[in-house]
Structure formats: C-alpha cells, structure tokens
Amino acid sequence: TQLRFVTISLGGKDLIAMGLASGPIYRQIFDKVRDAKLNGQLKTYEDEIKFVQTKFKAAIKSATNKSDGT
Questions:
Q1: Helix or strand or coil: residue 66?
Q2: Residues 6 or more apart from 59 whose CB is under 8 A from it?
Q3: pTM above 0.85, yes or no
Q4: Residue 68 and residue 70: Cα distance in Å, rounded?
C-alpha cells in the first residue's frame, strides 16, 4: 500500500535539458524510472538522472546529434 506513494523526481524539464524532444519516449523513460525506483535501484534525484543517461544513452545521443545537424 505504501508503493502508491512512491513518486519520481525527474520531470520533463530534465529530459529537455538532456536534449530530448517531448514525445512518446518520455512515457517510456518515466515508466522505467518508476519501476527502478520501486525495485529499490534508485534513491535520489541524481540516481534518476544517471539512470536515464545510462539506459537511454542512444536516444539522448541521437537527439543531440539532430540538434547539432550531424
């Protein structure tokens, strides 16, 4: 019953700061972060940021390459 009160600190502004344009990938990212937090893998906001940077590295790289024009 306490699991329903678990929330993630990461938000859309954080994903934008990483270079990701808003879209369906946000839902995937938020779901994975929430699952990892529920499983005890993530404790802090910084953990969430590092998790996304690691797990979604290809998407972030692709997004930054598009913004660079490469």
A1: helix
A2: 20, 25
A3: no
A4: 5
Q: Which residues have C-beta within 8 Å of that of residue 13, sequence separation ≥ 6?
A: none
Distance of CA 50 to the CA centre of its chain: 9
Helices (H) and strands (E) in the chain, counts: 4, 0
Cα–Cα distance measured from residue 48 to residue 42, given in angstroms and rounded to the nearest whole number: 6
Q: Are 26 and 12 in contact (CB under 8 A)?
A: yes
Please write the tens of the pLDDT for every residue from 9-65: 999 999 999 999 889 999 999 999 999 999 999 999 999 999 999 999 888 888 777
Distance spanning both ends of the chain, measured CA to CA: 48
Cα 31–chain centre separation:
9
Confidence of residue 5 (pLDDT cuts 50, 70, 90): confident
